[in-house]
């Protein structure tokens, strides 16, 4: 019985959750998009700047280049360079230079297409 429980637990740990599955290349996947304006150094070591998003690295590793669709004026190409404690699963946080504009952005359902996978 302990052996079966051990195998079950290891399978869950190795496979991860359904929410954290990475999108297939060239497919568009639905994500929740929010925005942030906090300046500083990102998890990748680069400064927070235009063209940067934070993501769950189990879904989109650091360095991944993505196309964001249906984000209004913020649709475009971004690089995953940051993470966030509240950015989990299919959620991206887009860096916007002005905190008021980031607040106005709110929460949007967007499509994300992976252009190039990062190495994390």
Strand-helix topology:
Elements: H1 2-15, E1 28-36, E2 52-55, E3 65-69, E4 76-82, E5 91-95, H2 99-105, E6 108-116
Parallel strand pairs: 1-5, 2-4
Antiparallel strand pairs: 1-6, 2-5, 3-4, 3-6
How would you describe this structure to a colleague?
With 120 residues, the chain is of the alpha/beta class. It has one domain (20-116): Barwin-like endoglucanases (Beta Barrel). It is 18% helix and 32% strand. The chain has helices at residues 2-15, 99-105; strands spanning 28-36, 52-55, 65-69, 76-82, 91-95, 108-116. It has a six-stranded mixed beta barrel. The longest helix is centred in the N-terminal third of the chain and has 14 residues, at 2-15. The N and C termini lie far apart (38 Å).
Q: Which characteristics define this entry?
A:
single chain, 120 residues, alpha/beta, Barwin-like endoglucanases, 6-stranded mixed β-barrel, 2 helices
Q: What is the CATH third-level topology name?
A: Barwin-like endoglucanases
**Beta-strand fraction estimate:** 25-35%
Mean pLDDT: 85
The rounded Rg comes to 16 Å
Give the number of DSSP strands: 6
The count of helical stretches stands at: 2
The percent range for helix content is 10-25%
Name the strands of the widest sheet in spatial order: 1-5-2-4-3-6
Q: What structural class do helix, strand and pairing data support?
A: alpha/beta
Regarding CATH, which class?
Mainly Beta
CATH architecture label name: Beta Barrel
Low-confidence stretches: 1-19
């Amino acid at each position: 019985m302990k052996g079966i429980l051990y195998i079950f637990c290891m399978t869950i740990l190795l496979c991860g959750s359904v929410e954290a599955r990475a999108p297939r290349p060239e497919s568009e996947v639905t994500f929740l998009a929010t925005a942030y304006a906090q300046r500083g150094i990102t998890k990748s070591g680069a400064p927070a700047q235009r063209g940067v998003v934070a993501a769950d690295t189990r879904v989109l590793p650091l360095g991944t280049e993505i196309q964001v669709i249906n984000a209004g004026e913020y649709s475009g190409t971004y690089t995953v360079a940051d993470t966030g404690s509240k950015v989990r699963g299919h959620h991206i946080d887009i860096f916007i230079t002005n905190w008021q504009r980031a607040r106005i952005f709110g929460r949007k359902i967007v499509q994300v297409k992976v252009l190039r996978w990062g190495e994390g």
